Amino acid sequence: MQNQRVHAHVLVVTYPAQGHINPLLQFAKRLNLKGVKVTVATTPYTIDSIRVNSSIAVEPISDGFDQGGFNQAPTLEAYLESFKTAGSKTLAELIMKLNNSGTPVCCVAYDSLLSWALGVAKGFGIPAAIMLTNSATVCSFYWQINRGCLTLPVEQETLAAPTTGLPSLDISDLPSFLADQSTNQSAYLALILDKLGTLHENDWVFCNSFEELESELLEALAAEWPVVTIGPMVPSFYLDRRIEGDTSYGASLWNHDNDQCLKWLDSKPLKSVVYVSFGSMACISTDQLQEVAWGLKASNMPFLWVAKEFKDHRLLELIDSIGEAGLIVTWCDQLEVLAHRAVGCFVTHCGWNSTLEGLSLGVPMVCMPQWSDQPTNAKFIADVWKVGVRAKRDGGIVTREELGKCLTEVMTGERSGEITSNASKWRELARRAVSVGGSSDKKIDEFIAKLPPNPQ
Ligand code: UDP
Q1: Where do runs of H (alpha helix) occur along 211-270?
Q2: Complex ipTM above 0.90?
Q3: Which one in 18, 83, 208, 363 has a CA-CA gap of 20 to 30 Å to 234?
């Protein structure tokens, strides 16, 4: 449905972390491709990292740390508080500026970490849409806590009877904030619960997932859980090769030399390479990194490893010694890598974007979840969608032997055929969800159709 609301103007407000900017930018691009005017708001520190089509405007709003962003803040709490104060003020100023520019803003769509944006939109009488960047399942856990149906810390007995639409779960499958006393008071959980308190005040509650992926849960909770799935928010080209142009999210907060990665991958046989990445935020211990390094070396499989920071000298020595077998980089364009014919397996921390990317590109996964929603995503990858395996921990880490076992299982073992065929199935379902007339595409059309028209 092209050009249906050319004069509608949606302001998309992003949180400046890679895993948050990506889905929001993709949402902005999907709206824009359907003829909606879109302005993206981001912080001054990240604005230069954004490269989108010139028909999407990018404007700054302040988090109070304009020179260095999050890294300048003394604590996460201080950062969030500062963002709330400076962000509310500068977002209001931006809306005033845009409203005076001829095409007033008719909807503010904001990242769920920025719940204060709701108040700003309402202050102008503008409809608001929140974008949840976790799976619907994970959000439903937080929702149940917010409603008092689950209490913290969640105990095994409470989980004995699974919620309708969910498999039987163990404590280790829950988002870490819910079961771990040491982190459940974290600023993140407070932030999550805060946004859920005002969920019903939003005109739309979007989730970066798709109907088919979490159908039972969504059906079971439909009456009280007002979520609309519009994902996966993965650049369209990777879902449907006929769609030219949309080949990246449009933001990279770190520099990379992807040509080097692609050239290296070109020299490897079909589906032979293990791609390893733990995302943008997880801090992996040196002991764990060493086990990964030894596990990869012992597997004799070529590997491409994104390791943002190798500091420990023992590790550097180890990396030197395994250098021949693999390519180690500090960042890459993950989508281009996952889409390469040589990649046969993705060792992932199971961040929600990485999970959706692996699934949408049909790449079998080895799960090494660290914290936050990652354990739940790993449970679904391994036991619900069955597109990978989860590495077991021993003494808090995944040993080299366990990693080796998982790599063999996914790449050549007895279950590799089943896993590969499930991966192809989910790839196709993801493609269909966002193709014209697919479940997610239709919901975006419905959203656009309901946007208040602007005077021309
Ligand atoms: N990513 C990337 N290059 C890398 C590693 C990650 O472009 O070398 C992207 C990846 O494609 C994903 C995002 O960074 O879209 C990470 O988001 P995710 O939710 O997987 O994890 P987080 O970083 O939030 O823990």
Answers
A1: 215-221, 236-239, 258-266
A2: yes
A3: 83
